[in-house]
């Protein structure tokens, strides 16, 4: 059994370098999310976005960037809420091992 890395009270990794796919599954279980290929597509997208731009977008920019890169059928709130029902941007970042987006409560 792999130990879960240390997280904040809200479940974000304290040290982003602790992230790997096993940790992502553990974080997803804590959020009651079963990861599918569709989830991984968004998780990898937000990790790439963060690596490229060195910051996290707000929800509107996140949705538009997904639409531009992955297509309009995935770059919309309905699709993203289907994958991450509580808060798409916040939970995608959490499962991707990224910091909490500054625009999220």
What order do the SSEs take from the amino end to the carboxyl end, as H and E? Answer: HHHHH
Instruction: Describe the sheet with the most strands.
Output: none
C-alpha-based Rg, rounded: 13 Å
Shape: globular
Number of E-type strands: 0
3D architecture notes:
This protein has 5 helices and no strands. The protein is mainly alpha-helical. Helices cover 51% and strands 0% of the residues.
Question: What labels describe this entry?
Answer:
globular; 105 residues; mainly alpha
Task: Outline the secondary-structure elements.
Elements (H helix, E strand, L loop, with lengths): L20 H10 L6 H17 L5 H12 L6 H7 L4 H8 L10
Briefly, what is this?
The chain has about 100 residues and is mainly alpha-helical.
